[in-house]
Amino acid sequence: MSTDTVDIDSTDGTNPVIKREYSAAEIYAILPHRYPFALVDRIIDYVPAKRAVGIKNITLNEPQFQGHFPGQPIMPGVLIVEAMAQVGGVVLSQIPGVNGLCVFAGIDKVRFRRPVVPGDRLVMTVELLAIKRLRFGKMYARAEVDGQLACEGELMFSVVESAAGRPS
């Protein structure tokens, strides 16, 4: 269930309602990713055109754990980065004037600080650093488990035209 709030500075009720949280179904309406590549379970805090905090609950049922690694499952680093990028996709795609598919275009300064394993709750905070011509974005992302830094880095995005549109 999502929570809507009105800008607290609004005294006349004319400011738009700002969505602060997104359910899995609402994320599906924003992002094109589907199983097994939908890596954000919920957005728990969203500030338009600035940042989002997303949650990914890591479970042993996920397909990557069949081979990474049997007997000692560890979330692949590339999937942690992709999960952070999907949170960034929510931020970028909701900016007025951004039209098209927001695709992951690059990473810089990414570091992994601790393993992420089944049973962990990955909390990903992604902040918009820059946007150019509503076509390119740069963000800082960090992922934590139990308040401990698991991964951080800079993510770049590009907005491309989508021939097929977003899946429904």
What does this structure look like?
By secondary structure, this protein is mainly β. It has a single domain, classed as Thiol Ester Dehydrase, Chain A (Roll). It is built from two helices and eight strands; from the N terminus they run ββαββαββββ. It has a six-stranded antiparallel sheet, covered by helices on one side. A two-stranded antiparallel ribbon has the order 1-2. A hairpin with a 3-residue loop joins strand 3 (about 40-45) and strand 4 (about 50-55). The longest helix is centred in the middle third of the chain and has 17 residues, at about 75-95. The radius of gyration is 16 Å and the shape is globular.
CATH topology name, in short, is Thiol Ester Dehydrase, Chain A
Strand content: 35-45%
CATH architecture: Roll
CATH superfamily: Hotdog Thioesterase
CATH top level label: Alpha Beta
DSSP strand count? 8
- Oligomerization category of the chains in this entry: single chain
How far apart the termini lie comes to 19 Å
What topology does this entry show?
Elements: E1 4-6, E2 17-19, H1 24-30, E3 42-47, E4 51-57, H2 77-93, E5 101-112, E6 121-132, E7 136-145, E8 148-160
Which features does this protein show?
6-stranded antiparallel sheet, globular, 2 helices, disordered N terminus, mainly beta, Thiol Ester Dehydrase, Chain A, two-stranded antiparallel sheet, 168 residues
